[in-house]
Amino acid sequence: MIDNREEKEAKRLQAVQDLEILDTAPEADFDDIVRLAAMIFKVPISTVTILDAHRQWFKAAIGLDVRETPRDISFCTHAIEQADPLIVEDARKDKRFAKNPLVVDSPHLGFYAGVPLLNSEQLAIGTFCIMDRMPRVLTEAEIGILKILANQVMALLELRHERNWLKQLLAELDRIYKTLRESEQRWSFALEGAGDGVWDWKVGTDEVFFSKRWKAMLGYEESEFPNHYQSWRAIIHPEDIKQTLSHLQDHLDGNAESFQIEYRVRCKDDGWLWVLARGLVVERDNAGKPIRLVGTHTDISKRKEAEELIWRQANFDTLTGLPNRRMFFDRMSQEIKRATRTRQLFAVLFVDLDCFKEINDALGHQAGDDLLVDVSNRLANCIRKSDILARLGGDEFIIILSALENQSSVETIADKILKVMNEPFELEGRQAQITASIGIAIFPLHGLDGDSLISHADTAMYDAKDIGKNCWVMYEQKPTE
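The structure corresponding to this sequence follows.
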């Protein structure tokens, strides 16, 4: 067993060295992910940690003022010993870490969650971590988000290594091309084994060589897709073509070191595939004008799907699918700018369910969740597509009614909401009755910024509860003495 562990550790350390990541300069992509993790989980510390033989080195970190610490005191050393995330809910009560210097002294860790960064051979390069100074518990959904972020970090590490490899490959191709200038066999040993699609464009002409793999990624047989520049241009997504061609021209003009962009291309089945295209000018004429551009494209659809999931988790309520608090405040800011520019009214409706806790306690949390989903659907049916509905948390919902002609139209919608809330809900085979209390604030009459409008709508909502619930109240400015 000892020999096996030593052999595995040797392979792991070699994998770390192969990535050529240790002691490199900070990079925005990694820094953005640790910032995003800190925002999503509301923790002071997040790191991308690489485990060397005797140290843990931070490729990216927020909340720490050091770049590395000894490996023998690191939580991450424990995390890479298992496939699942290592969750330490209370480090002070965990026998493994209670006397750890990182717990006893600065940064006084009380909580740690780390996901191993596994390469294609399932070797742990390091970990993606979040840490807090206070104990805490993660839900299954939060652990899922942490895993997705870790997968993104590993994808970035591999993409970074692949990018460096591509530069070396293109340099080698340039040397090979000078020997085999017009040989149609030049790709058979150089690039087809790389796994990506390959293209070779004679700049200024319509002649482009697309490899067999390039065409297969789009669902084409080798003879089905013509080797023409215009054929490639025709399959770029209309929303992406302007930026793609602009990036291409920047590299041809010498304004960019390389051509690199993510864009969508149409497949044979009319579906869209996200690809990462990378290329370099490898031949110029005597005047320095580019005459040959070589590159690859990589299928990044799975990464795009993961990015979309992360974005939705950060901006939408997982239960109802409605915008969450973070997304709502962003929409509110946009609505204030629009209403200020157009000089129009809009209203904020703060909706709080009456006696929700009683139903939740009586029928159980699943019934409570089902009720919240039904409520969100009913609220959505009461407003226009141009309006905004969000869930702030618990049984609190908030609505923006945009571009109002007058105050009476707000009252009509509020009455409609009260009416649909009074209709029975079917929960767990039983009927349940619930009502709502609504507070209303109008821009710009009751506030010029989001915080004021929400605060005043919240005040009006509590006034509605005080006078008996199941009603709406318009905010009224209290006179000052």
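The longest strand covers residues 272-284.
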